[in-house]
From TrEMBL:
InterPro entries: NRAMP_fam. The keyword Endoplasmic reticulum does not apply. This is Protein Malvolio. It is found in: Membrane. Its main location: membrane. One of its GO terms (cellular component) is plasma membrane. GO terms for molecular function: cadmium ion transmembrane transporter activity; manganese ion transmembrane transporter activity; symporter activity. Pfam families: Nramp (PF01566). One of its GO terms (biological process) is iron ion transmembrane transport. Keywords: Membrane, Symport, Transmembrane, Transmembrane helix, Transport. The chain crosses the membrane at residues 32-56, 77-96, 116-133, 140-160, 180-204, 225-247, 273-303, 315-332, 338-361, 373-395. It comes from Saliniradius amylolyticus.
């Protein structure tokens, strides 16, 4: 069994934001929130597995499936607005953070340099890779970067030497005082809406050349479980390292830029360089996958081709990348755009989840590959969680 498209999901959700969120969770609450991570990983495997199966069986990505099967024009236009706003515009807004994170990683390796030197270089590398339109090339590059992240962060955790008993106790559900926002942030940084569009889009493109759909679905299920599980392990390693290093201490602030420096007392001077490699890999993987996901979502909802070599597809991905590069290079604050994207994401996630569940339970759409009873029962708490998370996000924004 080899890694495949599922690793793009891991590449997408392990970014600078996840590093910061997991570090804050470990620093402020020790191992107490590990159960949240476990739940998030299970929920992500279930949802991404359904999106992957939809792409393989129908040959449509999630955006195309929504456009095709929402027959009421008003609802179709509303879905299109939400998808383009949340995924397309949202990807552009978050791209600045991805490029900045990758730049900070390189600054950690080359301390005398400035981020505005590195941001255009990283953007050009990402653009060149996406412009090739070659699935395998992009996939292999991301697999390499994710494996680098895995090596860096898991080795860092082993060097930190967490208490295994305390670590295992963290899988028992509890919500320490003041931890609710962190719980929701940890869930939100793992269950990422645009990954549903990205995963289904890549596999839908590959499925056009696949005759044995059943075998492809089986492979995708294993790939999704292993890939997302690996992403969960990386997040666990980051959270555990922060817990050992910072829990119970007075740490003024944690960010992707300062964590490496603050780890030096625990791991020595090499920590800065070691962690910087992981931060660079995390930023670069997200910088590549965000434009890709945005292009699948926008092109699918507008009825355009989702072929990576299609000119419109390339231009949408390039626009998202350029927007992020400009914001990151000039030090602009995309606050208003991010708030808008978060608000539309808050509405979109439960809507898309409901539609995804409906699609993969429709025999007309999925033929023999519909959900089983056990999977649908497992979906109940996941759907309730997603709905609650979205409501909380919208209320907090208001």
């Amino acid at each position: 069994m080899r890694f495949g498209a599922g690793l793009l999901v891991t590449a997408a959700f392990i970014g600078p934001g996840t590093i910061t969120t997991a570090s804050v969770a470990g620093a402020n609450f020790g191992f107490a929130l590990l159960w949240t991570l476990l739940f998030s990983v299970i929920a992500t495997i279930v949802l991404q597995g359904m999106a992957a199966r939809l792409g393989i069986v129908t040959g449509l990505d999630l955006a195309q499936a929504l456009r095709k099967h929402i027959h009421q024009p008003l609802f179709r236009y509303l879905a299109g607005f939400l998808v383009i706003s949340a995924i397309g515009i949202g990807s552009a807004a978050y791209e600045a953070g991805n490029l900045t994170g990758a730049s900070l990683g390189l600054i950690g390796l080359f301390p005398d340099s400035e981020h505005y030197y590195w941001t255009p270089v990283i953007a050009l590398i990402s653009a060149a890779l996406l412009w090739t339109g070659k699935h395998k090339l992009v996939e292999n590059a991301l697999i390499g970067l994710v494996l680098i992240m895995s090596l860096v962060f898991i080795t860092t955790m082993v060097m930190a030497g967490p208490d295994l008993g305390a670590l295992m106790a963290g899988f028992v559900p509890s919500i320490p005082e003041g931890s609710l926002t962190t719980v929701l942030a940890l869930i939100g940084t793992t269950i990422v809406p645009y990954n549903l569009f990205l995963h289904s889009g890549v596999l839908a493109s590959q499925a056009r050349h696949t005759e044995d759909k059943t075998r492809a679905v089986t492979h995708a299920n294993w790939d999704t479980g292993l890939s997302v599980g690996l992403g969960g392990l990386i997040t666990l390693a980051i959270l555990s390292t922060a817990s050992v290093a910072f829990f119970g201490q007075q740490v003024n602030s944690l960010s992707a830029a300062t964590i490496a420096h603050q780890l030096e007392p625990l791991l020595g001077e090499s920590a800065q360089y070691f962690f910087a490699v992981g931060l660079f890999a995390a930023g670069l993987t997200s910088a590549i996958t965000a434009p890709l996901a945005g292009a699948y979502a926008v092109c699918g909802m507008l009825g355009w081709s989702n072929d990576m070599k299609n000119t419109r597809f390339r231009l949408v991905a390039l626009f998202i990348l350029i927007f992020g590069a400009v914001v990151a290079s000039l030090g602009l604050d995309p606050f208003a755009v991010i708030i808008f994207a978060q608000a539309t994401n808050g509405v979109l996630l439960p809507v898309v989840t409901f539609y995804l569940v409906w699609l993969v339970n429709s025999r007309k759409v999925m033929q023999e590959q519909t959900n089983g009873l056990g999977l649908n029962l497992l979906l109940i708490p996941i759907v309730l969680l997603i709905t609650g998370l979205s409501i909380y996000k919208l209320v907090s924004l208001v």
